[in-house]
Amino acid sequence: MSAAISVRNLRKVYGSKAAVDGLDLEVPRGCFFGFLGPNGAGKTTTIRMLMGLAPPTSGSIELLGLPMPEHALEVKGKIGLVPDESLLFDHLTGPEFTEFVGRMYGLDRTVARERGQELLELFELSSEPRKLIGDYSKGMRKRIAMAAALIHRPELFLLDEPFEGVDAVGARLMKEILLEQVRRGATMFLTSHVLEVVERLCDRVAIIQQGKLVLDSTMAELRSSSETLEDIFVRAVGAERPAETLDWL
Amino acid sequence: MWAQWRSTRNRFPRANQAGVAFTGIMGLIWYGVFTYLAVVAAFLLSSPAELPTLRQVAPGALLLCFLYWQLIPVLTASMGSSLDIRKLLVYPVPRGSLFWVEVALRISTSIEMLLLLVGSGIGLAINPSVPIWAPLALMPFVVINLLLSAGVRDLLVRLLARKRVREVVVLLLVLCAALPQTLLLSGSRGRLRQFFSSAPVPALPWNATAELSFGEFSWFSAATLLVWMAAAYFFSRWQFERGLNFDRGEASGRTTSARAANRLEWWYRLPSVLLRDPLGALVEKELRFLSRTPRFRLVFTMGFSFGLLIWLPMAFGRVATRHSPLADNYLALVSVYALLILSDTLFWNCFGFDRGAVQLYLSAPLKFSVVLAGKNLAAVFFVALEVSAIALVCALLRLPLPAIKSLEAIAITFVVMLFILSIGNLSSVYNPRAVDPSKSFRTAASARTQAMLMLAFPVALIPVALAFLARFAFDSEWAFFGALAGGGALGATVYFYSLGSAVRASEQRREEIIVALSRGDGPIAS
User: Fold this and answer.
1) What is the pTM of this model?
2) A58: distance to nearest CA of chain B, Å?
3) Does residue B2 form part of some domain?
4) Residue in B277, B290, B359 closest to A87 by CB
5) Does B297 map to a domain?
6) DSSP 8-state symbol, B253
7) What is the pLDDT of residues B135-154, one digit of tens each?
8) Is residue B523 part of a domain?
């Protein structure tokens, strides 16, 4: 069976700066893949290219065995996206939004509405059905975004910092739901700055630094070493210098 | 002020160069006209021979200047640059400083009047028969206007954040705007003439300013300006402080009751009955979203009420005959006018309210042409609703509008809309910008909108003008509708061609579109 994500020599250049520089990546199906890197390393740019939101300067992308962008429409229908910047419509209510997204992904209106209701209950968002998304807290916004991403039962999830701003209870709920999706055969491509989360959820990890892949390994291999994921991460991105101090501070 | 300047300055190299050049050229034309008028004012006021005549008209001219300064930003729902003061409250900046910055930023809403006043001041300064101190009297007038407009802005921002109060305020504003011509055209002309030709009331700022700036010093006029300045200061400072304590979320009370929501559900679901998904879902989403957006609700109410009230006295007032061209084409005129008012929210920048959520359209498995078509159909829905509301009011007022005229109005609006949609789709893709849907007033300078109106509308109106010409030449309704049908066919061709171009542009520019629409509001607006 083909890989869920297969990326060859992917490059994205802005002006004279390469945000992603010759990236090669293979994510097997059914894998919970952690994609790590410091701020500005190229994680979000990579996700945007995978999603077809940003065209690559060069290189090739295959998602679920289909080349992009040639099969973009077919592939998009099988992907669930939770981006870093919310793609929510502030003046819709939670049920309206999930139903809308479901219908955008080709679900029948009744099915989209029913699934939306169930997802809202699952994510504990059903108590105020008439509340506009614009009035949601940050954690609630993340939860509704994930609920909407699940509505069409995607085979591949692209998750950009999905737990940012979510409280412990909400984060736990979201993690359990994602793990359940992996158990049923879906693939997760997760970026997060919270290494503990990655350590707990992922079975494979890659680290990107200045657009280049500096580490690609299974979690089992990493766990066999004496170092923590944080130590490995810091060493991989070359940030092992001691913290500087300012005279006036 | 530095941050405001830098925000504006930094935006230009990063913005779409064609858009910047276009805005720049239109700004030059718009402000160039006022600069020219300022030069004319300076030239006239520098001549001692013209002074007695100009002294007579000066109070009226200053009153118009005052009204333009205070009303135009309100009527165009464009309040210029402004600070989001509450985001700046975390810094140790005295409130007084923030207040004066806010007042200074009011200059951005009425550069036109400042140009005219500067021109007038220069003219008076070089006039040998006017004392050297006299032009300085224009300065308190400027200060009064700046303070008042700051206070009015703060007051309106608070009022328009409140559901339902917003609609009432807009109707009141419309009534105020329509009042002068209603009085002029409905038999009160004599009384108005008497009012303006009688000795001016010296306690009003425009009269006191006129007196002093022409060198006629009186302690009463000087005291009048001081009192007005003090009153304007206290009013705007009071409104400013109230604005700081204002809770927008609490005021908007955005959770609708179950009853109200159910009442509107059939209207929201209507597109899904008529159209298949994803088009039905897209149009339904637009109806739900726009119906709840304060900015859209404001322009929709304005589009419906402004046209009716402003053109009504002209078309059917005592002075106008009931068979004037204005009365004959009243419904068409008001409908096209409504189209014009709605254009900023429905056509020119149709992804503006979606902001970062535009990513959903680009990441979902649907063609971008379907997304644009959904936006356009929603626009057609709202325009149809607007025109129906106007027609209903006309019927209730028992205005002489035969069926043929209603048909004519619908046909004209449809043809004009085809061209506006064509230009709007391209503009939405090439020059997208994020718009906060919860703010009733936009902050963008008026030049860009003026520019779109100046260029796009005359082009869109050409087929209609040709249809009227055909009717005049052949003296036949058939000729009129034939020419209009030709215009419609051309409009449809242009629409489909521009839709294709917009889709191709969106493929190439999707990154720029997302970046432009994801730009959030900071404390400083640019």
Assistant:
1) 0.75
2) 15
3) no
4) B359
5) yes
6) -
7) 888 899 999 998 998 888 88
8) no
